[in-house]
C-alpha cells in the first residue's frame, strides 16, 4: 500500500496490551494535529478515518478543528467584514 505522506519511516513500538493500535493511532494523530505538525487531512489519514469522522473525534477530545494562528484569523475576519 502506498504511504499517504511525503516521507515516512518505519517504527516499532511495544505498547501495553490494553491499548489497541487503533487507539494509539488516534492519540498520535490528535496530538500531532494539535501541535500543528500534521494537517487535518494528514491526521485523519494517520488515524485511518475520513476527515469528517476525524473532525468529530477532535471535537469529542475538545481539540479545535480550526487551527489558525492570529494572522490567519485576522485575515479571515477581515474577509467576513469584521
Note down, in words, how this protein is organized.
By secondary structure, the protein is mostly helical. Helices cover about 50% and strands about 0% of the residues. It is built from 4 helices and no strands. Helix 1 packs antiparallel against helix 2 and helix 2 packs across helix 3. The longest helix has 14 residues. The protein is elongated.
Q: Which terms would index this structure?
A:
elongated; 4 helices; mainly alpha; 0% strand; 82 residues; single chain
Mean pLDDT: 87
Q: Structural class of the helix and strand makeup?
A: mainly alpha
Distance between the termini: 46 Å
The total beta strand count reads 0
Contiguous runs where pLDDT drops below 50 for at least 5 residues? none
Tally the helices: what do you get? 4
Structural Rg: 15 Å
The portion of residues forming beta strands comes to: under 5%
Order of helices and strands: HHHH
Assembly classification? single chain
Q: What is this structure, in a nutshell?
A:
It is built from 4 helices and no strands. It has helices at residues 21-34, 40-46, 51-60, 70-79.
